[in-house]
């Protein structure tokens, strides 16, 4: 979770319970204090910084940032992005292989007899996938089932698997042509 704020909360009494729930769910929290409002008005930001640090996961050196103003947010984007991508949704310590964490479900949808087939663009390290939601439940084929149809050597061309899940639809990339794969997901 990323919290970016330029002022103290107005519901601070709810903060301890919210943080306890985050801890219970093992939610990593980044907190960014934007000090512009305080600096422009020559106000002491000590209480504000203390509250925002309490929101950030420990240690503060890794999960808390402060910037002088809104424009300075650009200065921390790369550092924050690197930290989040080395952490979020990846198996193992500082792993960098994504499964479904980066997928954008619903980019394309196809009606089935008793449900829907969704494209999941971004799944499997941006290779893409599909998800079936039907009377049979929720089915997502594992990467290993898709690899024969979209081998690693075609990764840059297969990265949009899931953009079009209806016949005749697709979003070819890099001058490629749409490729269809008919499978029974069950």
User: Number of helical segments?
Assistant: 8
Helix content: 25-40%
Low-confidence stretches: 92-96
Largest sheet: 4 strands, antiparallel
Number of domain units: 2
Radius of gyration: 22 Å
Beta-strand content estimate: 15-25%
Number of DSSP-assigned strands: 7
Rounded average pLDDT: 76
Classify the oligomer: single chain
GO biological process, one term: cell adhesion mediated by integrin
GO cellular component, one term: external side of plasma membrane
InterPro entries: Integrin_alpha_N, VWF_A, vWFA_dom_sf
Pfam families: VWA
Give a structural overview.
GO terms for molecular function: integrin binding. Pfam families: VWA. InterPro entries: Integrin_alpha_N, VWF_A, vWFA_dom_sf. By secondary structure, the protein is of the alpha/beta class. The protein has two domains: about 1-85, Rossmann fold; about 95-185, no CATH class. It contains eight helices and seven strands. The strands form two sheets. The chain has a four-stranded antiparallel beta sheet with strand order 4-5-6-7. The longest helix has 10 residues, at about 15-25. The chain is elongated. The two termini are about 35 Å apart. Residues about 90-95 have low confidence and may be disordered.
Secondary structure blueprint with pairings:
Elements: E1 2-5, H1 15-24, E2 30-34, H2 36-40, H3 46-55, H4 60-63, E3 64-67, H5 77-85, E4 104-112, E5 115-121, H6 123-126, E6 129-134, E7 137-139, H7 143-146, H8 155-158
Parallel strand pairs: 1-2, 2-3
Antiparallel strand pairs: 4-5, 5-6, 6-7
Organism: Patagioenas fasciata monilis
Protein name: VWFA domain-containing protein
InterPro entries: Integrin_alpha_N, VWF_A, vWFA_dom_sf
